[in-house]
Amino acid sequence: MIECIGKWLAASVLLGLNSGSMVCSTVQAKELVIAFTPDTPPYVMDDGKTGIEIEIVRAALAPQGYSFTVRQMPYGELADAVRIDDVDAAATVTKMENGTFYSDAYITFHNAAITKKSANHKIDSIEDLKGKTILAWENAYEDLGPKFEALFSPSVKAPYRTKYHEIGNQKDQVKEFWQAEDDVIVIGITVMQWFTRELVDEVDTTAPLVYHKIFPANTKFRISFRSEQVRDDFNAGLKQLRESGEYEKIYAKYLK
Description:
Blueprint: H1 2-15, E1 31-36, H2 52-61, E2 67-72, H3 75-78, H4 81-84, E3 89-93, E4 101-102, E5 107-109, E6 111-116, E7 134-137, H5 146-152, E8 164-167, H6 170-179, E9 184-188, H7 189-198, E10 209-212, E11 219-225, H8 228-244, H9 246-255
Parallel strand pairs: 1-2, 1-3, 7-8, 7-9
Antiparallel strand pairs: 3-11, 4-11, 5-11, 6-9, 6-10
Helix pairs in contact: 2-8, 6-7
C-alpha cells in the first residue's frame, strides 16, 4: 500500500493528475488480528508468540500472503469475538451459526476424564461423572458433546451440578487436581501431560493415573473468520500444510 501511494504521488507531480485520475492496483496489505486463548501450552505459549496452534495458523496463512498479530482473550469470549470485538478471526472455536465464516478443523484435542488410581472411581460413561467433583476447562460443556452438555450446562439445576467446576486457567486446573484426593479432571490429554511436567516442583505429581476415555469424539476446533475469502485462503493453506507433512512436524517439535 505504501508503494502504491508513492507511485500515485510521483505521477501527480509529473503529470498533474488529480486525486481521482489514477487507479492503484497494489493489493491491500494482508495483516490480520487473530484472537487466541491465553497461554495453554503446548498449543499457545509465550504470550501468543509460539505454540502448536500459533505455528499451524502462521504456516497455513503465510503462503497466501497473510501475517497476523495475536490478541489473547479468555476462552469463553472467543466464540463471539469476531462479531463483537475488533478482530479479523478467532481461533479455538467450535462451529455455530453467528454470521461468521468457519475454517476446516485445524487442531484436535483428545479429551479424557482422568482420576488418581487411589480414588478408585468407576467411570465407564459420561453419566458416571454425576455426583463426582469435576474440574473442567472454561465452557467445556459446549465442547464435549450433547450428553455432557445435557448433564453439566449452566441451565441444569440438579444438586450434582454444584460439584462441577470450570477453571479458566488450565495450569490452575491441573494443579488443583494434583492437590485434591479424588477429583476428576476433564481435559485434553496433551494439556494434562504438559502442565503436569510444569508442576513437578510445586506439587506431588507421582500418583498413578487412570484415563477414562468416555467421550465419543475428540474435540475439533476451527477458526472463525470475518472474511469468507480469508477463510478460503486459510483452508487452502491448511490443506497444503497437511499434504506436505509440515503439519505433523509442527506437532513433533512440541511433543517430542
